[in-house]
Specification:
Elements (H helix, E strand, L loop, with lengths): L5 H12 L6 E2 L1 H7 L7 H15 L3 E7 L5 E2 L2 E2 L6 E6 L1 H92 L1
Length: 182
């Protein structure tokens, strides 16, 4: 996989290839990232790329073969025989650290945004659940108030019936006493 930023990719390659930050052969990296072109045009691209990194003091080049001078002893240096030996400089390490921090900052921002969206979604669904629960509770409260009013009606009817029964009982008692007194 080719890195998005070739210079960062090269610095990572050097750092991963050398634990002591010593000199490293860059042939494999260069052959992979600079495809072969007609008339060895990729060598010019490689030369400019290395000149940019060396001029910016990101790498220190010990030797180059087949890059600047592409003909040796009357024959062209084959692509698979090119050689660049270089090491990363403190400025190159600093650039790698900044790139890592940028990645972590972007990751942090994206993570915070994602968590914000998730919390909003969660609160939305929770509010929907609480609205549904509130509607159910209101329905039950309405049902209870209807039952209470029906019970009050029944209670009033039973009181009225009790009064009628007591009145009728008194009437019967009075009628029985008057019949006995006759």
């Amino acid at each position: 996989m080719k890195p998005q930023k070739l210079e960062i990719g090269l610095l990572k390659y050097i750092k991963s290839s050398s634990n002591t930050y010593g000199y490293v052969e860059l042939r494999d990296f260069l052959l992979y990232n600079f495809p072969q072109k007609s008339d060895m045009a990729e060598r010019i691209e490689i030369k400019r790329f290395l000149k940019f990194l060396e001029g910016g003091e990101y790498i220190e080049i010990k030797s180059k073969r087949g890059i600047s001078i592409i003909v040796e002893a009357g024959r062209a240096v084959p692509r698979n025989e090119i050689s660049v030996i270089a090491k990363i400089t403190p400025k190159g390490l600093e650039l790698l650290e900044r790139e890592k921090n940028n990645f972590l900052n972007k990751f942090g921002i994206i993570s915070a945004f994602g968590l914000g969206v998730l919390s909003l979604a969660y609160s939305y669904f929770e509010s929907k659940k609480s609205e549904d629960l509130e509607l159910k509770i209101n329905k039950y409260l309405n049902d209870i108030s209807v039952i209470e009013s029906k019970l009050k009606e029944q209670n009033e009817l039973s009181k009225a019936n009790r009064k009628k029964i007591l009145y009728l009982k008194k009437q019967i008692d009075v009628t029985i006493k008057s019949e006995e007194n006759k």
